[in-house]
Amino acid sequence: MREVPAMSSVFDAMRAASRHDQTPSWEIRADRLRRLRRLVHANQEAIATAISDDFTNRPRQETALLETFPSIAGINDALRHGKRWMRVRRARTGLWFKPGRSRLMPQPLGVIGIVVPWNYPLFLTVGPLAGALVAGNRAMIKLSEYTPRFSALFAQLVQATFAPDEVAIINGDAEVASTFTALPFDHLLFTGSTSVGHHVMRAAAANLTPVTLELGGKSPAIVGPGAEFDHAVERILVGKLLNAGQTCIAPDYVLVPEAQRDRFVESARRCVNRLYPGLAHNPDYTSIISPRHFGRLVSMIEAAGAAGARVVPLTDAAPDADARRLPPVLLMDVPDDAMAMQEEIFGPVLPVVTYRTVGEAIAFVNARPRPLALYVFDKGAEVVDRVMRQTVAGGVTVNDTLFHIAQDDLPFGGVGPSGMGAYHGEAGFETFSKLKPVFHQAGLNGAGLLKPPYGKRFESMLKLLLR
Description:
Blueprint: H1 3-20, H2 26-42, H3 44-55, H4 60-86, E1 89-91, E2 101-108, E3 111-115, H5 123-134, E4 138-142, H6 148-161, E5 167-170, H7 174-181, E6 187-191, H8 194-205, E7 211-214, E8 220-223, H9 229-241, E9 253-257, H10 261-275, H11 291-306, E10 310-313, E11 329-332, H12 339-342, E12 349-355, H13 358-366, E13 373-377, H14 381-390, E14 395-398, E15 419-420, H15 425-431, E16 433-440, H16 456-465
Parallel strand pairs: 3-4, 3-6, 4-5, 6-7, 8-9, 8-13, 9-12, 11-12, 13-14
Antiparallel strand pairs: 1-2, 2-16, 7-15, 10-11
């Protein structure tokens, strides 16, 4: 395969360049970030068109809101704070080792590998890339074969903007991705499914490459007994239906008080009709990325219905396989062993689970793998605080959905099966850096007393240390 030697050559050149310029100055890092910002800003329309073509339809407004805006905001945050993040940091020194002093020296790791999924190809490229660049690294990026138009365009733009040993784009199929993840990167960041994450981690383990895994899972939304109900329904549906549910932190199922079950269905129908009137031909509604993904979602709905779930369409529109347009549906009374309750859905399908007490809702969440995101809606601090204390999730938005991912000062990452490690803002800088611990010994110090032969003086010193 011709891509393999080329990929290895690119990696070797990057590694040599990173070792030659081990700690780039702030001026070099800022220049790279500004070039990346210009690339995104100057080509945003072409990028949005390419992404829309890859999906068959995705509104440019959605790409602007969910990809271009957070990409530029993340770069601006790195430019605003990166010089401060680079500074050597003081660290406390133990009493017995004074007047010595301790420091933490941030240094680039070297060459970062980034594997990008198809659902948000711009943001999930630029976000980690900005973190890698502000930390002083070089980066190789494997883009998804499911977004061929975006991938080809972005490769051209990067080639015109960066030197080959600064940033490089690798395109190709799953075999190329497998070869890519087997390279001995200094750090590898993968965003994608949990199942593929297993393969990525195994490949990285062969080189002892540290990994950040941004996976998915079944992110719950809890509508509390004191929630502003219709508002909660709308925000859950907005978070679910942006990008037609093809979002790793989209609400994957909703927990509703038992008495509010029918009201949820009615409110959801009204909400979808407000958001996407005439959905069958509404240009604001995104298509499913591929025939395979469309077929998987249809099979999931049919399997749930066959297992006894009630399938509740939220519009009168019918599924359109040619346009890969799948109208949103609720799944009521879904058996726990159904695919819709076992796998991440990644589409406009929302199971509704009822509960009698908040404790029951919390127990339902905790009986499942730790989610990437969790959403809780309630006007009372007591319910919100209880959910926060008694559940574990990668990130949380209270009384809304999705917005925690847009906060540059909050680390973004999963926990357990939904991922490991985090990035965004300073957390990204630290993920792609080595905070090198340094101890400076003072000219006048007592270290000379702590050496053989271990006589009475040593024993006296040891007694002081062990008090």
